[in-house]
Design a protein that fits this description.
Number of helices: 17
Bound molecules: carboxymethyl coenzyme *A
Radius of gyration: 24 Å
CATH topology of the largest domain: Citrate Synthase, domain 1
CATH superfamily of the largest domain: Citrate Synthase, domain 1
Number of strands: 6
CATH class of the largest domain: Mainly Alpha
Number of domains: 2
Order of helices and strands: EEEEEEHHHHHHHHHHHHHHHHH
Structural class: mainly alpha
Distance between the termini: 52 Å
CATH architecture of the largest domain: Orthogonal Bundle
Length: about 425
């Protein structure tokens, strides 16, 4: 419970009773629980707030990520995303999200060593992955194998033990790329490539994805850096669908492996992390710039959405999308230009000049360009949400731990407005109950 003095109050009158109430305002919010005192009669449960999809409800107080959707601002622990993408590595950013401060030199080295040391997975995990069908979606494999890690580390259930939490966090950050790459190799019928501890986090992931017969895999430094930046851009995004899932599952004190698996499942949907996969499919379906006007008309007619456009929070621009465009230029210098880029650029131009998109405040989001880059780097579309999940893991874990240690939190249990039948009795007209 906060001890701050309120910055003001909201005075409301219940017209059912004529009673007046004063609700204190803290941090620009009234507490939903303060509504409970508002009752139509003595036996009334008290007033609820109704907020499907939680569009106007703060579910926690957080110090991790700040977003100002109107001004296109994204900061992790106070640092602007532009500066982090320019000057920090993904592992440093992961440390920042998890610990609140950037690591100094010694801390950074120790953290990188720790993560590198835990990149291997138990050999049984390989057998487990072998059981999946050859065309299993890698996101399905990732979600299942992350949950399966819970059975390998039963100590993870001790969520209030600081050291246990630290170890599971390291393991999860370290093993996500390994599981992701193994999922890909399984689909390709390739032998699994083991982690290489002399490589960077992103470089090692590329190694596990692409290594063939050569003894050592040397990642292209431009692609390695681009992937690192992409991971940074995806590392956290405050209370989105998957972070909220992570906190919700964590609120029952489930271990972080199953919570991460649940968060990854939430990410899998096409309206969240599955969007970059859908963007690529959409650009491929459009096929050429001449087909764009017709496609845009169909979007406006409500047939389907323009994938990679729109955001619940950003209403002017997505700062991540702007950084990604620069990364795209660097990547295409190495890989050659992805022909889908021309379609994407023209589609963006048409949409941004169109009244429908302008009035609905729809702008390209992070996923509009990320897929084109991933494809140019050689990743199949099915791997796109998996790449998102690798980058997002430190954010999920930071959200999980913050929620767990917040004394104001308890098991998540929203209310509902019941609008079904009132009580009724079974009678002779009721279809057979089988008894
Ligand atoms: N194409 C066409 N119309 C759209 C789109 C779109 N991409 N997004 C929203 N709209 C329209 C929607 O039809 C509605 O119109 P109206 O008011 O006339 O009925 C209005 O804009 C508001 O839509 P909403 O669904 O209430 O907005 P939301 O804040 O709930 O949705 C969103 C946010 C990201 C789910 C949505 O914009 C969307 O479906 N975008 C496409 C999927 C996508 O790119 N997702 C990735 C999000 S960024 C990565 C991440 O953080 O996961």
């Amino acid at each position: 419970m906060t001890t701050e003095t309120p910055e003001g109050s909201l005075q409301v009158t219940d017209t059912r009773t004529g009673l007046r109430y004063e609700l204190p305002i803290f941090d620009g919010a009234v507490r939903a629980m303060d509504l409970r005192q508002v009752k139509a009669s003595d036996d009334d449960f008290g007033l609820l707030s109704y907020d499907p999809a939680l569009v106007n409800t703060a579910t926690c107080r957080s110090t991790i990520t700040y977003i100002d959707g109107e001004r296109g601002i994204l900061r992790y622990r106070g640092y602007p995303i532009e500066q982090l993408a320019e000057e920090a590595s993904f592992l440093q950013v992961a440390y920042l999200l998890l610990n609140g401060e950037l690591p100094d030199k010694a801390e950074a080295e120790h953290w990188a060593e720790d993560v590198t040391h835990h990149t291997f997975v138990h050999e049984n995990i390989k057998k487990f992955i072998d059981g999946f069908h050859h065309d299993a979606h890698p996101m399905g494999i990732l979600v299942s194998t992350v949950a399966a890690l819970s059975t390998f580390y039963p100590g993870a259930k001790d969520v209030f033990d600081k050291e246990s939490r630290r170890v599971q966090v390291v393991r999860l950050v370290a093993k996500m790329p390994t599981l992701a790459a193994f999922a890909y190799r399984h689909a390709m019928g390739l032998p699994y490539a083991y982690p290489d501890d002399v490589l960077s986090y992103a470089g090692n992931f590329l190694n596990m994805m692409w290594k063939t017969t050569k003894l050592e895999y040397k990642p292209d430094p431009v692609l390695e850096h681009a992937l690192d930046v992409l991971f940074i851009l995806h590392a956290d995004h405050e209370q989105n669908c998957s972070a909220h899932t992570m906190r919700t599952v964590g609120s029952s004190h489930a271990d972080p492996y199953v919570a991460t698996s649940a968060a990854a499942s939430a990410l899998y949907g096409p309206l969240h992390g599955g969007a970059n996969e859908q963007v690529l499919r959409m650009l491929t379906e459009i096929g050429s710039v001449e087909h764009i006007p017709e496609y845009v008309e169909r979007v406006k007619a409500g047939e389907f959405r323009l994938m990679g456009f729109g955001h619940r929070v950003y209403k002017n621009f997505d700062p991540r999308a702007q950084i990604i465009k620069q990364v795209a230029d660097q990547v295409f210098e190495v890989t050659g230009r992805n022909h889908l880029l021309d379609i994407a650029l023209e589609l963006e131009k048409v949409a941004l000049g169109d009244e429908y998109f302008v009035s609905h405040r729809l702008y390209p989001n992070v996923d509009f360009y990320s897929g084109i880059i991933y494809q140019a780097m050689g990743f199949p579309v099915e791997m796109f949400p998996v790449l998102f999940a690798i980058g997002r893991t430190p954010g999920w874990l930071a959200q999980w731990e913050e929620g767990l240690l917040d004394p104001e939190q308890k098991i998540t249990r929203p209310r509902q407005l019941y609008v079904g039948h009132p009580e009724r009795d079974l009678d002779s007209d009721t279809p057979s109950t089988g008894k």
